[in-house]
Write a structure and sequence with these properties.
heterodimer, A: 114 residues, mainly beta, seven-stranded mixed beta sheet, four-stranded antiparallel beta sheet, 11 strands, B: 117 residues, six-stranded mixed beta sheet, 0% helix, 51% strand, globular
Chain lengths: 114, 117
């Protein structure tokens, strides 16, 4: 069974530029999560989707971050415009359903904002 | 809001020895899950062990076991017979199980585990 796929693995941009990350969850997984992991910290949930609907985006900085999950499968997280403090690893995770006990994580995208 | 605290930024242990990583959490909920995740340099988060709050018996997975003290809101991880491959960042995480709302994980800051050969 293929795991959670993410791309790109690395991205370097200048501040005020835009960037997008892509996530393909495990086939059949209805729930998808985006986490932000700043260096030296644990991951922080940004947004949770159930199929193509948003369950929780309370910690998403909506003035610059947006995310979508069209057709309830792949998801895209966008930052526009990026700030220096957005430098982090962005992790995508999926689970079979919302009450599933295990979330499976992708390898993450490391973003560096200069 | 729930919080998870890991007070040991770094731990070191000799290969084949036993090490215990500490975690405390704060929540007003009664039904929840606790997890330990391992994150090697490759960044891939790997589930090590999970504990359901309503189960009194401590979870065990091969060389990994937990000491779950619900009243004290403590959830420590014991690694027996430490191996070089155990070297990684270890994160304690909490997940609400109310069933009706968001169930994203709340993580601690992590403990960097070093295995001395």
């Amino acid at each position: 069974e293929a795991g959670v796929a993410q791309s790109p693995r690395y991205k370097i941009i200048e501040k005020r530029q835009s960037v997008a990350f892509w996530c393909n969850p495990i086939s059949g997984h209805a729930t998808l999560y985006w986490y932000q992991q700043i260096l030296g910290q644990g991951p922080k949930l940004l947004i949770q989707f159930q199929n193509n609907g948003v369950v929780d985006d309370s910690q998403l900085p909506k003035d610059r971050f947006s995310a979508e999950r069209l057709k309830g499968v792949d998801s895209t997280l966008k930052i526009q415009p990026a700030k220096l403090e957005d430098s982090a690893v962005y992790l995508c995770a999926s689970s079979l359903e919302r009450v599933s006990t295990e979330q499976f994580f992708g390898p993450g995208t490391r973003l560096t904002v200069l | 809001a729930q919080t998870v605290t890991q007070s040991q930024p770094e731990m070191s242990v000799q290969e084949a020895e036993t090490v215990t990583l500490s975690c405390t959490y704060d929540t007003s909920e009664s039904d929840y899950y606790l997890f330990w995740y391992k994150q090697p340099p490759s960044r891939q988060m790997i589930l090590v062990i999970r504990q359901e709050a309503y189960k009194q018996q401590n979870a065990t997975e091969n060389r990994f076991s937990v000491n779950f003290q619900k009243a004290a809101k403590s959830f420590s991880l014991k690694i027996s017979d430490s191996q070089l491959g155990d070297a990684a960042m270890y994160f304690c995480a909490y997940r609400n199980n109310s069933g009706g709302g968001a169930d994203g994980l709340t993580f601690g800051k992590g403990t960097h585990l070093i295995i001395q050969p």
